[in-house]
């Protein structure tokens, strides 16, 4: 133990000695560079002599400095293959290099011959030399400018002549740049002399006396440096004969300003530039632009496209839209909140891209100030998409990239284990450091970790709910909060390999795409109310209403799903509660009209963040209102009071008695007394117009301001025409009919019905048996012919919550069905939710899976339960391992049971009527 401690002390002393050498070396070089008298050439030689003293083995270390193609080194210099180098950059251009060599073999460390601190040292010295070069160059320019001004005052030479002559002597790069720009301008003006000069190199004669322009396959003659300089002089002589001195001076000033920005153009347009280099260039550009430098319109447009491609998306449809709305200045604040690995070339992902585009479209719209000037975007940090690749590489998980090519059963079986593996992995130090800054920035405010993959939220593939988004209370010590944040990020990373996500990619031909996962870390919108944190309300809105509860509601009237508290209950199907549905274009047409309906279908639960318990939690709204009703901002806009089967809406909180009133969440005050609905309608209309596609947005409101959380192209199916329903269908051929919440279309030629009997499902008592029903449905989904079968069963399929109130499935368990029919039985409390707009429902819409709710207990409908229960059940034959569920799951071969007939379903939303009946084929 004592020996081990001695080794640790010795190692510490060695490290301190090395740091002392590096600091001494840096100090000596700093002293040299601050000497304004020594010529630059002498300085660089001295740097080459001093630099080896800062390295671990100075006796066998040699250094060399190259600047403007000239070499500066000590007398005993030797080169070798054991090299460490750093570029010297001035205004974004490489003008030289510092190199350090070991001329003999030396011991190596894990990452090579040179220590990490030595790599940092040589980069620091390269930066200091760059600043010295700039300083000495600027000093020389200033001195020559003073001489030039004196010459100008004595001789009367035009000012532009003085500037051009000075540039020729001090900055040939800038001189040649403005002469080239001047030549192009003169040619554009149609100056014949300029056009002849432009053609001159191409028309000089070769040795055979033939002009090279006549030989299209012959290279043009290469011009020497002197030729180019002489040509530049001629350019300005031509300019003086065709432009006024004032015009020439104006052009020179503009082009010199543009030349200052060439580093920016070069960095952004270079596909090899790392994200760090691009962010550094944007920061420099911000300061230079503040001094008055401007880009030409064409260059700015090109840079807009390049920045969109580097940060947001390479999808051409997105770039075409985004380049009109996202400017260079829009990246100024963004780049300060990006976390990325070393040498990153990742993007911010689709969810981030959609939010940035939507916020810029709205901020620059004419309606912004008047209609939604209170619109906000929550404070957000971003992790680049390639951080997932680095995470997997650092933890040796590369083999998981093949997970997507396995069978879906195997993927589903292994996924929970992958989640745990990821959650027990480590992050790179630079990512941990960035996340530490995130924790400091947010303090103790709750946050949400959201996925933002490259494929997510793009046109044609929304990936709604396929990847994880996780709320964090963000309470406790900094170490605890940081650990919880990394744990959540790892879980979001793992969701890349979830069965639903992989199946979704497979169906859309995206399986072979190299998917990467960006991360958004977003501040949760809301207010602390007691021990809880929540927004006043939240929801999701769609510009296109796919399923309409009234024939008077148009597709373009849109849809809003509103819930009190966090918006999770608006986008997830829940088994025991309801959101409030509103069509913004026709808000007076509500789904529920009578007091009994409004009371029954109003939200009863609320999702919140429990700060004291450090967790996400679901509470009864009645309890929340009794304890904290007076503290929730704007709560009266959400509530109505029910008295003697009559509802009335308060105009302020003072009219509410939270302890005694029977309070119902209706959002009536929000619709009637605020501009919220018109705001949402306007936002949806603007975004749909500019993006060129129906959109869906997620939002939250803290009682004062509306916050935009997400925007993406809306999943939508083709517009189906209402089916013509014959009046003469024999009643014995009708399997079911419906007259509530009907959409348009038809589902013909169904050969198989999978029927989950609501009564048998209700009688089950074992949780594992409920789960087995969902598993059996998933197996049937894989076996039965795609789009030739329908699913019929109780309650809300695919919901979170009480498994007894609906079959427990995910999208991958139903993706091959032609239709999902949910049965509402009064006995058993099976009530379908109009879940238009949930992630589950959006998947069905996008995949053209039709939906219909059935209410078999109503007298005006037909429900042939006898056919469904007494027809031969194919389940034991198809899935013998689930034969025990034959009383609950019935698999019916329709042609085999009905003398060759098939099931057809006709739906007509205009007359609110649907029918499923047996008919002959052909």
Blueprint (SSEs and pairs):
Elements: H1 2-33, H2 40-50, E1 61-67, E2 70-73, E3 83-90, E4 93-102, H3 116-155, H4 159-170, H5 172-188, H6 192-203, H7 225-242, H8 245-260, H9 262-269, H10 275-290, H11 297-311, H12 316-322, E5 338-339, H13 350-363, H14 368-372, E6 380-383, H15 386-394, H16 408-423, H17 429-442, E7 447-453, E8 469-472, H18 478-494, H19 499-507, E9 517-523, E10 527-529, E11 532-534, E12 537-542, E13 559-564, H20 568-571, E14 580-582, H21 595-600, E15 605-610, E16 615-620, H22 621-628, E17 639-643, E18 646-648, E19 663-665, H23 668-673, H24 676-691, E20 695-701, E21 706-713, E22 734-738, E23 745-750, E24 752-756, H25 758-763, H26 767-783, E25 789-794, E26 819-823, H27 839-846, E27 850-854, H28 865-870, H29 875-878, E28 889-893, H30 894-897, E29 902-908, E30 913-919
Parallel strand pairs: 5-6, 24-25, 25-26, 26-27
Antiparallel strand pairs: 1-2, 1-4, 3-4, 6-9, 7-8, 7-9, 10-11, 11-15, 12-13, 12-20, 13-14, 15-16, 17-18, 17-19, 20-21, 22-30, 23-29, 24-28, 29-30
Please characterize this protein's 3D structure.
Helices cover 40% and strands 18% of the residues. By secondary structure, it is an alpha+beta fold. It has four domains: 14-137, GAF domain (Beta-Lactamase); 333-524, ATP-grasp fold, A domain (Dna Ligase, domain 1); 528-713, D-amino Acid Aminotransferase, Chain A, domain 1 (2-Layer Sandwich), CATH 3.30.470.20; 731-919. It is elongated, with a radius of gyration of 36 Å.
């Amino acid at each position: 133990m004592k020996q081990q401690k001695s080794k640790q002390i010795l190692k510490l002393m060695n490290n301190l000695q090395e740091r002392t050498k590096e600091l001494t070396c840096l100090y000596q070089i700093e002293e040299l560079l601050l000497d304004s008298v020594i010529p630059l050439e002498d300085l660089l030689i001295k740097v080459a002599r001093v630099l080896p003293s800062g390295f671990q083995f100075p006796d066998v270390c040699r250094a060399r400095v190259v600047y403007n193609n000239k070499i500066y080194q000590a007398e005993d210099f030797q080169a070798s293959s054991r090299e460490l180098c750093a570029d010297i950059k001035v205004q974004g251009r490489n003008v030289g290099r510092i190199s350090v060599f070991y001329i003999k073999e030396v011991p190596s460390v894990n990452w090579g011959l040179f220590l990490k601190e030595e790599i940092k040292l040589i980069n620091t010295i390269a930066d200091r030399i760059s600043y010295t070069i700039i300083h000495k160059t600027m000093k020389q320019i200033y001195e020559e400018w003073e001489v030039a001004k004196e010459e100008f005052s004595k001789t009367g030479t035009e000012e532009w002549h003085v500037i051009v002559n000075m540039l020729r002597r001090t900055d040939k790069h800038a001189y040649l740049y403005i002469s080239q720009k001047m030549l192009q301008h003169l040619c554009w003006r149609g100056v014949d002399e300029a056009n002849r000069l432009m053609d001159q190199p191409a028309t000089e004669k070769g040795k055979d006396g033939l002009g090279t322009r006549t030989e299209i396959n012959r290279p043009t003659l290469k011009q020497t440096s002197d030729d180019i300089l002489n040509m530049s002089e001629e350019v300005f002589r031509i300019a003086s004969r065709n432009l006024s001195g004032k015009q020439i001076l104006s052009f020179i000033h503009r082009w010199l300003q543009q030349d200052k920005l060439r580093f920016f153009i070069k960095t952004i347009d270079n596909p090899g530039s790392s994200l760090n280099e691009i962010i550094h260039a944007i920061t420099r550009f911000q300061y230079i632009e503040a001094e008055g430098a401007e880009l030409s319109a064409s260059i700015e447009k090109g840079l807009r496209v390049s920045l969109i491609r580097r940060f947001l998306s390479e999808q051409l449809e997105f770039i075409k839209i985004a380049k009109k709305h996202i400017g260079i200045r829009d990246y100024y604040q963004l780049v300060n909140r990006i976390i990325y690995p070393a040498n990153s070339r990742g993007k911010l992902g689709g969810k981030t891209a959609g939010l940035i585009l939507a916020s810029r479209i709205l901020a620059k719209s004419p309606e912004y100030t008047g209609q939604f000037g209170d619109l906000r975007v929550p404070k957000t940090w971003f992790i680049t998409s390639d951080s997932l690749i680095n995470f997997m590489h650092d933890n040796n998980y590369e083999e998981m990239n093949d997970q997507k090519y396995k069978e879906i059963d195997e993927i589903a079986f292994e996924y929970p284990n992958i989640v745990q593996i990821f959650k027990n992995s480590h992050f790179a130090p630079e990512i941990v450091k960035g996340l530490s800054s995130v924790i400091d920035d947010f303090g103790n405010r709750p946050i949400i970790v959201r996925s933002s993959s490259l494929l997510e939220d793009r046109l044609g593939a929304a990936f709604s709910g396929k990847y994880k988004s996780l709320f964090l209370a963000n309470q406790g010590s900094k170490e605890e909060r940081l650990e919880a944040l990394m744990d959540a990020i790892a879980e979001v990373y793992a969701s890349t390999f979830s069965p639903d996500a992989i199946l979704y990619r497979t169906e859309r031909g995206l399986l072979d795409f190299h998917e990467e996962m960006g991360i958004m870390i977003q501040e949760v919108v809301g207010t602390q109310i007691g021990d809880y944190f929540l927004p006043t309300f939240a929801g999701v809105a769609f510009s296109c209403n796919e399923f309409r509860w009234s024939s008077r509601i148009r597709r373009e009237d849109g849809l809003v799903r509103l819930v009190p508290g966090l918006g999770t209950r608006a986008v997830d199907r829940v088994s025991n509660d309801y959101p409030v549905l509103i069509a913004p274009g026709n808000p007076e047409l509500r789904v529920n009209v009578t007091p009994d309906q409004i009371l029954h279908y109003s939200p009863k639960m609320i999702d919140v963040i429990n700060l004291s318990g450090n967790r996400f939690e679901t509470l009864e709204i009645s309890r929340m209102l009794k304890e904290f009703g007076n503290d929730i901002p704007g709560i009266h806009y959400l509530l109505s009071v029910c008295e003697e089967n009559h509802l009335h809406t308060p105009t302020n909180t003072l009219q509410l008695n939270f302890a005694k009133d029977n309070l119902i969440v209706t959002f009536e005050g929000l619709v009637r007394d605020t501009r919220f609905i018109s705001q949402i309608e306007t936002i949806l209309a603007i975004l749909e117009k500019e993006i060129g596609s129906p959109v869906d947005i997620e939002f939250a409101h803290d009682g004062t301001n509306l916050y935009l959380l997400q925007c993406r192209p809306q999943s939508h199916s083709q517009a189906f025409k209402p089916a013509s329903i014959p009046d003469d269908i024999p009643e014995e051929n009708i399997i079911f009919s419906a007259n509530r919440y009907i959409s348009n279309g038809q589902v013909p030629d169904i050969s198989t019905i999978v029927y989950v009997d609501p009564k048998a499902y209700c009688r089950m008592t074992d949780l594992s048996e409920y789960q087995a029903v969902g598993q059996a449905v998933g197996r049937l989904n894989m076996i039965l012919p795609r789009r030739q079968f329908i699913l019929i069963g109780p309650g809300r399929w695919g919901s979170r919550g009480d498994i007894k109130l609906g079959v427990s499935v995910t999208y991958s368990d139903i993706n091959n069905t032609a239709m999902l029919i949910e049965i509402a039985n009064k006995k058993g409390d099976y009530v379908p939710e109009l879940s238009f707009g949930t992630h589950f429902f959006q998947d069905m819409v996008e995949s053209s899976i039709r939906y219909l709710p059935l209410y078999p207990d109503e007298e005006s409908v037909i429900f042939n339960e006898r056919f469904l229960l007494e027809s031969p059940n194919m389940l034991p034959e198809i899935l013998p391992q689930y034969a025990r569920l034959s009383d609950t799951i019935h698999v019916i071969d329709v042609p085999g049971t009905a003398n060759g007939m098939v099931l057809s379903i006709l739906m007509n939303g205009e007359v609110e009527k649907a029918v499923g009946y047996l008919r002959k084929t052909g």
